[in-house]
Specification:
Residues 9-130 form the TniQ domain. Pfam families: TniQ. This is TniQ domain-containing protein. The structure is a single chain. The chain has helices at 17-27, 33-41, 53-59, 64-67, 102-108, 135-138, 163-180, 189-201, 206-210, 226-233, 236-241; strands at 73-74, 81-84, 87-90, 99-100, 122-123, 128-129, 131-132. It is mainly alpha-helical and 242 residues long. It has two domains: 15-151, no CATH class; 153-239, no CATH class. Strands 1-2-3 form a three-stranded antiparallel sheet, with no helix packed on it. Strand 1 and strand 2 (81-84) form a beta hairpin.
Length: 242
């Protein structure tokens, strides 16, 4: 189709792949992200979670320094494991659907990869649960531009009574920051959370967790909404034991 990449924006630290791909398509004049994906990866419907570092590197002229700031690149095309710094995070720890904090996005103008991690359901900065991206309602406007909020329930939960969830997530985020830099010894955060998933669901194995309920996309995080908050609240004993 004759469209090329001439502008290579440098990613923000911890930026999500979805967000960076949208930015690449926008600044290079592609009429849609779907067309961008079709030209470069042969599929309009390919998920950002399927993309590996080689997929992105090819598009941005093998500027490997750009990749160091991105998180949750697949370990190989279509793999169920994703690089988060020095960590490997399996897809059953991630939401299939893109989540975000509208207040953070308005202030910063970009999306964070960690918002895809199911056991980080809150924005601690704004003391609110993350919500699914609603492109029609939010329009993903840049900072300072108001967007429509009229089309869907925004899934804002009352956080009264969730003080323990906030405290637990602060512990998880601190541990994540250490492990992504390779600065933690002992049982991994991933193994601790896998154990908690099995206990919470009564499943005999992680494979059973992945296929537990068909109301959730299989091989992705098995909890949603307030269930995610309750799961995090119950993690305290598991992590103390580790």
């Amino acid at each position: 189709m004759g469209m090329s990449i001439n502008i290579y924006p440098f990613p923000y630290e911890g930026q999500s792949i979805n967000c960076y791909v949208r930015r690449l398509a926008e600044v290079n004049g592609y009429p849609s992200v779907g067309l961008f994906k079709e030209i470069w990866w042969k599929s309009r419907n390919i998920s950002a979670h399927e993309l590996c570092d080689d997929d992105i590197a090819e598009v941005i002229g093998y500027r490997r320094g750009h990749l160091q700031k991105l998180r949750l690149l697949s370990s190989a095309r279509g793999s169920w494991e994703h690089h988060y710094g020095a960590m490997l995070i399996p897809s059953h720890h991630l939401h299939k659907h893109e989540m975000y904090c509208p207040a953070c996005f308005k202030e910063k103008g970009y999306m964070l990869a960690k918002w895809s991690i199911g056991w980080l359901p809150l924005c601690l900065e704004h003391q609110c649960p993350l919500i699914p991206v609603d492109y029609e309602a939010e329009k993903l406007m840049p900072p300072g531009v108001e967007a429509s909020r009229t089309t869907r329930d925004r899934r804002q939960y009352d956080l009264f009574g969730y003080d323990e969830v906030c405290k637990m997530q602060a512990v998880l985020e601190a541990r994540l920051a250490k492990e992504e830099r390779g600065n933690f010894s002992g049982p991994s955060l991933i193994s601790c959370i896998d154990t908690a998933m099995m206990l919470s669901t009564g499943a005999p194995s992680i494979e059973a967790v992945k296929s537990r309920r068909r109301r959730y996309p299989m091989r992705y995080f098995p909890f949603w909404g307030e269930q995610s908050l309750q799961f995090v609240e119950c993690l305290s004993q598991e992590l103390k034991a580790a």
